[in-house]
Design a protein that fits this description.
about 130 residues, mainly alpha, 3-stranded antiparallel β-sheet
């Protein structure tokens, strides 16, 4: 079995690794939370307006959706496009960077879905000890 990181962590440590500047941590801070993952999955099929996303994710608050979209936009994963209408309308879509990230995210989603029963069993066994 190939090592997951191919020695990447060792390489980073040799270069004076600073956990605060870890590239993985920098990305995961914004894309690994519950809402950004679901937002990205919603954007997989194409651009969405804010209220479309809000309806598609009924448990999310407006504030949390706004923050998730801002973080993803700041990281260059989501594009925000404003249309000059009355009132102005806004659409969100994946950038090229976001589209490149999506297959990796969906692989994680597939793994989680396929492993959930094993995880639930492990949790139950752990809790019984």
């Amino acid at each position: 079995m190939q090592r997951l990181s191919d020695g990447k962590l060792d390489q980073w440590k040799a270069e004076g690794f600073n956990p605060a500047n870890c590239p993985v941590r920098q990305v995961l801070d914004h894309v690994s939370a519950k809402w950004p993952v679901l937002v990205l999955m919603e954007l997989e099929t194409g651009p969405r307006r804010f209220n479309e996303l809000l309806r598609a994710l009924p448990d999310i608050s407006k504030r949390m959706l706004t923050q998730s979209l801002r973080d993803l936009e700041r990281d260059g994963i989501v594009r925000r496009q404003v249309f000059d209408t009355k009132p102005p309308s806004v659409s969100y879509s994946l950038t090229e960077l976001g589209e490149g990230f999506l297959p990796h995210l969906l692989a994680l989603v597939d793994w989680a879905e396929g492993s959930m029963q094993n995880i639930l069993t492990a949790r139950k066994e752990f809790d019984l000890r």
